Amino acid sequence: MGYAEGAAGARPQSKTTAKAGRGSMDRIRIVGGRRLNGVIPISGAKNATLPLMIASLLTEDTLILDNVPHLADVALLQRILGNHGVDVMIAGKRAGENGDHGRTLHISAKTIVDTTAPYELVSKMRASFWVVAPLVARMGEAKVSMPGGCAIGTRPVDLLIMALEKLGADIDIEAGYVIARAPHGLRGGEVVFPKVTVSGTHTALMAATLARGTTVIENAAREPEIGDVADCLNKMGARISGAGTSRIVVEGVSSLHGARHSVLPDRIETGTYAMAVAMAGGDVLLANARPELLQAALDVLARTGVAVTPTNEGIRVCRNGAALAPVEVTTAPFPGFPTDLQAQLMALMTRASGTSHITESIFENRFMHVQELVRLGAHIRLDGDTATIEGVARLKGAPVMATDLRASVSLVIAALAAEGETIVNRVYHLDRGFERLEEKLAACGAAIERVSD
Ligand code: EPU
């Protein structure tokens, strides 16, 4: 993904504690072999927060979002929205002010001063392309840079454009920009996605809220983050039914109003820490986690022999020295096994007692972690979209780096069980999507710290 280092903050750093500030050149140092015991609080979901912030463009009133995670991607989107004239006020800004309950954002798009989203900003975060939908729906026009390729594949936007056209937008593509026009407003229509797409569904949903008449979205993505955005839009006065199923119906309304919404817990962060505990051994409560958001991943973990128990407070994950059984897994849209947990599962399977197969069916090039896991001593063979992982008795620490968020965190998981020291470089990828990662793991006994130059 074309992510700029500056977004993670370019302040010089000098401390080596877990509490040190975030710098783009920071590294994470891990000494493997410690079990994890305790409680890890799960933050609000990054992939719900981003479209929820973008949905603020649909109304002149203030949208209040609670349980917002403190992430570089959120800060970057705040800057991108600022370019359109959106004001964002953050409560709970100081460390400890809001405890583990995330931050509260007051977002006001009272006056849209600019309907252009320039290349310099959109190229830093793909999801910012989604502003095209609320801008054309509310303002009748939007000019948004195409996001371009990223580390995990080509990731086109053809289906987002198709959805906007079905709702009556005229689309031109000029000099790398998508120009969407609907001077007399969008109108409801039928959007049938040929493949499941989260970005396409968010786009169609947001655009349809202000379109005249009824929109039907067929083969819609069923990811929980879609349901969370639909819930929030309904609180803002939208009339959406069927979110969470593959057929969503939207009755357009003439305007939306302000609302208050709490972001749902991050299922990918939940699954990541569940795999970290499975890797390191120990007994951890993932507080605030909701099992129904990641049942497929929890089922896979249970098949490896890890004890996964839903409780009133969250999900308890426990592994006490027993061997890990190998698994066969193919990523799939929700409710299948998420592509965003594929790298983490692969890290775990490097220590299974036997051979696993993991097939990536969503993105064509999401295996950047493989070479780095091999540097730690893993035995992995790639054949097209399938990785064959032969479990090994030990991993050995090494300097590693990865070029995307989930790949980076898979290296952290591997390092927890590797002998000696692992240095994970390019920490800004982790800061994009994991709030206080090193603090959360250190609090459960991991030997992990942020190192700044
Ligand atoms: N696709 C098209 N044409 C389109 C749109 C998508 O061919 O117009 C393809 C993509 O190339 C991909 C597949 O459809 O092969 C699925 O893409 P989708 O639109 O579902 O993904 P996305 O919305 O771009 C979101 C998450 C990703 C997550 C995927 C799949 C956000 C901000 N991003 O991406 O999260 O992997 O859904 O669940 O919600 C991450 O958090 O690390 C991350 C990459």
Question: What is this entry, summarized?
Answer:
Helix content is 29%, strand content 26%.
Detailed description of the structure:
Helix 4 (132-139) packs parallel to helix 6. Strands 23-25-1-26 form a four-stranded mixed beta sheet. The protein has a four-stranded mixed beta sheet with strand order 2-15-17-16, with helices on one face. A four-stranded mixed beta sheet has the order 4-5-3-14, with helices on one face. The chain is α/β, with parallel strands linked by helices and 453 residues long. A hairpin with a 3-residue loop joins strand 16 and strand 17. The chain is built from 14 helices and 26 strands. The longest helix is centred in the middle third of the chain and has 14 residues, at 267-280. The structure holds uridine-diphosphate-2(N-acetylglucosaminyl) butyric acid.
